[in-house]
Amino acid sequence: ISSSCCSSSSMFVIIIIVTLAPKRKTKKKHFVQQKVEVFRASDPVLSVLMWGVNHSINDLSQVPVPVMLLPDDFKSSTKIKVNNHLFNKENLPGLFKFKEYCPQVFRNLRERFGIEDQDYQVSLARCPPLKDEDGQCVGLLLTSYDRTLVVKEISSEEVEEMHNILSEYHQHIVTCHGNTLLPQFLAMYRVTVESEDTYLLVMRNMFSHRLHIHRKYDLKGSLVSREASFKEKVKELPTYKDVDFRNNMQKVYVSDEEKQKIMDKLSRDIEFLVRMRIMDYSLLLGIHDVERAERDEEEEMESSYEEEEEEETDMAPAPGSTSPEGISGYMSSFKPMGPGEFDPYVDVYAIQSAREVYFMGLIDVLTQYDTKKKAAHAAKSVKHGAGAEISTVHPEQYAKRFREFITKIFA
Q1: Are residues 50 and 150 in the same domain?
Q2: What does each of the 411 residues of the chain score in pLDDT, given as a tens digit?
Q3: For the domain that residue 51 is a member of, what is the CATH number?
Q4: Looking at the domain assignment, is residue 312 inside a domain?
Q5: Phi, psi for 359 (deg, rounded to 5)
Q6: What's the 3-state SS for 217-248?
């Protein structure tokens, strides 16, 4: 892909060792010498991620789509080791490894979620993903430059948990035809730079790539230790929690029909999470205030009116500016959208109401109820009392309490 918005790119020769690695067998290919275009990013891990995504999607495009997925597809991976003797430190590390987990499975999931591989490739690899300044997440939390994808650093244990649920998750997505509040998992990678492994999970962004979020909540259905800290509350866009939701007397205003649709979807997803013995997940709720957005837009237009007037004579349309690019790119070929308008094919988690647009999805769904969580539950029960609404409870109890809480968030 040629980069129109990244200032520096270069061509050089690299040596690649490709290993196709189902767990049971390892098959090595011969050394291949080829020219590859690489992209500059401030972080070497990001540079390798972008290179790897380009390489894997280009490789997959040469492989026929299987008629059906086989059990081995849920265990397979592809590995690439690159030793770049013509070292160019501005673009890529001299030695790195890139591993893609279950490429055929995630390819199938992307298709079921309505995302074409070429659009995915452009959204993730045309320009470096942006680091999330939220500061909540341990490790990397990135958003693609067009804000349609999220890249989250996960632990090796979470990689294992993803493998544990992937087959059932895929079946759940097939059954509900992709109509879910669960995260849309699109790919999983391991990037190795200087012998250090970074595990990355790519998901669709639950929030809009164009509508600004004015308020944000992370809801677990528990009131114990579920209030945003003072440090969090002074942020430009704080992540509020259950106690804040109650204290702010916040409500979600949708029709009875829309509420029923949401709760049906939520119940189906929660049943899946209980079957997988998963707990400690949250409902991420983002609220876009249409009237506030209109006011902000008017103020912005007034403040920039004179500046625009001066520049107008010099402005010319950018070449190729109307050509579709990335997951959200095709929208530029339609008429511009007004305040509060969105495309349901891109903003799949959006729910329209009279004065607000809500974005609702389930997050943090890779925590299985293991011995660590059982120990945490026992410790919290001692501290807060056995009847306290602590977040660490077994999956059935967690699901029941969570569903009851979410039912009450509607006006």
Answers
A1: yes
A2: 444 444 444 434 444 444 444 444 444 444 344 444 445 567 889 999 999 999 999 999 999 999 999 999 999 999 999 887 665 566 788 889 999 999 999 999 999 999 999 999 999 998 889 987 655 555 789 999 999 999 999 999 999 999 999 999 999 999 999 999 999 999 999 999 999 999 999 999 999 988 999 999 999 999 999 999 999 999 999 999 999 999 999 999 999 999 999 999 999 999 999 999 999 999 999 999 999 988 887 777 777 665 555 554 333 333 333 334 688 765 454 556 777 888 888 999 999 998 999 999 999 999 888 745 555 555 555 454 544 455 567 899 999 999 999 999 999
A3: 3.30.800.10
A4: no
A5: -120, 115
A6: EEECCCCCCCCCCHHHHCCCCCEECHHHHHHC
Cβ 174 vs Cβ 317: under 8 Å? no
CA distance 34 to 193: 21
Distance separating alpha carbons of residues 330 and 150, to the nearest angstrom: 19
CB atoms within 10 A of CB 201: 20
Number of domains in the chain: 2
261: its two tokens: 């649709």
Question: Is residue 197 located within the same domain as residue 265?
Answer: no
Which of 97, 99, 152, 216 is labelled catalytic? Answer: 152
Catalytic-residue membership of 269: no
Cα torsion for 336, 338, 344, 348, to the nearest 10°? 110
Among residues 204, 233, 260, the one where a domain terminates is 204
Among 269, 280, 289, 347, the active-site one is 280
Q: Is 235 a catalytic residue?
A: no
Domain assignment of residue 245, given as a range = 215-290+342-409
CATH number of the domain that residue 223 is part of: 3.30.810.10
